[in-house]
Known about the structure:
By secondary structure, the protein is of the alpha/beta class. It has helices at 46-49, 64-69, 128-131, 154-167, 183-188, 201-206, 230-236, 245-250, 252-260, 276-286, 298-311, and strands at 2-5, 12-16, 19-23, 35-40, 56-62, 77-78, 82-85, 88-94, 103-108, 112-115, 138-142, 173-176, 193-196, 215-218, 225-227, 240-244, 264-268, 290-294, 315-318, 327-328. Helix 7 packs parallel to helix 9 (252-260). The longest helix is centred in the middle third of the chain and has 14 residues, at 154-167.
Amino acid sequence: MIVRPLDPWCGVIVEYEDTRVFVDVNDRSEPRVKRADVVIVTHPHRDHYGGVPKVTYRELRADDVTAALLGLEDTARRMRRYFEAGLLDARTYPVNHMCPEARAVLLHGDATVLVTGDWCALGEHPPLWESVDDDVDVLVTECTRALDREPDDPEAEAHTLQRLLETHRDGRTVLLLNDVNPLVEAASEVETLHVLRDDPAVRAVEAGAHGGADVVLVEEPRYPLLTSDPGRALELRPHTVITERWFLYRDEETVGELLRGTPHAYVVSGTGHATLGEIVRLVEELKPRHTVLRHGGNQTATTARRALERTTDTEVHVWVGRKGGKLTL
């Protein structure tokens, strides 16, 4: 088996005999390889599924929301707990993240590779180290929050959002969220949310990303308004904007201008990414021969690498940015 990076951010290539599998395809840069037998998407965040149109493949495995966002409802095959990915056996595990559909993927050939996608320990599902009962040769995990000490809990952040919306019930409140953010469901418990008919969020709502919440399509802005378009939020000049940290990375300039010009602006920081302690615990429990750090910056990766080398016996590899080699098992 061969494991190598597909792109500078999160995508992974796993090759076994005549089978080539991509796990996640980032939308921020061109993939290093264009053709796969099977593409597997761990969760419906654009930086994990947005690059799928850039590659060719015979089969796409994804949840229903991701398939709908890609416009591939009729051709994508649903993510299952067990399935065959060419000559590889695949098993998936639900993980805690902002997207309730998020899963980790274990690929088994003559070795085993576990790709966590984005995950954290707290939330509805058991920690990943309690779910995975297979031996793991290679663990590929994100290290975005390796500098953070406090564990992240997407469910706790939902309560934060509820309180903010309750506080600003009567204002021109715009909820600027990633278009598949499950916090929409939590927010709907406070009051109805509105979406403009031409907003990009409409497609995600129609795909079921809102979890069946009370979301109403409108012709003119009515508040509280849900949008996934920072430019649209900026045009509306709301009195209150509630957004998530994810947007600060996606569109720093536009969102920064929006936050500076809004009297009441809040950033909901919960994302469902593992802290350094959770990463170390996962490695300690699973005892992989190799641990690959992805989906973070140089500082977070360096911190995680040092901690893992100090406390575990795993061989640590850093595939961050343009760094990244090839593991042959």
